[in-house]
Write a structure and sequence with these properties.
124 residues, mainly alpha, Helix Hairpins
Length: 124
Amino acid sequence: MKNEGFTLRKRLRSFKFAGNGIRLLIAHEHNAWIHCFAAVCVTIAGCWLGLSTTEWIAVVFAIAMVLAAEAVNSSIEALADLVSPDYNEAIKRTKDLAAGAVLILAIGAAIVGLIIFVPKILAL
């Protein structure tokens, strides 16, 4: 790929492409809907329970990591399906590994949520 230099127009265009990727993720990926629903619930609970700045940082980071992993997983699946529409053991393994990465992050996010929210709920 040829480097044609930095321009503001190109940077703004790259944000447009990234925004389209987020739109595609939310509009078409069912697992992303589940993650977004969980993120909304956690955000509402965080506002209601009055999370500290540090707790918000952990929650926002966890949400962002899960959604980013879901986007990467979805892109890997789309590309793998294009490259090999028929069953292929290597493609299956690749897709399973990508899905596993999302699951690891989702479990980590749930643990962060439990660490932050359980003591606050018990204190009510």
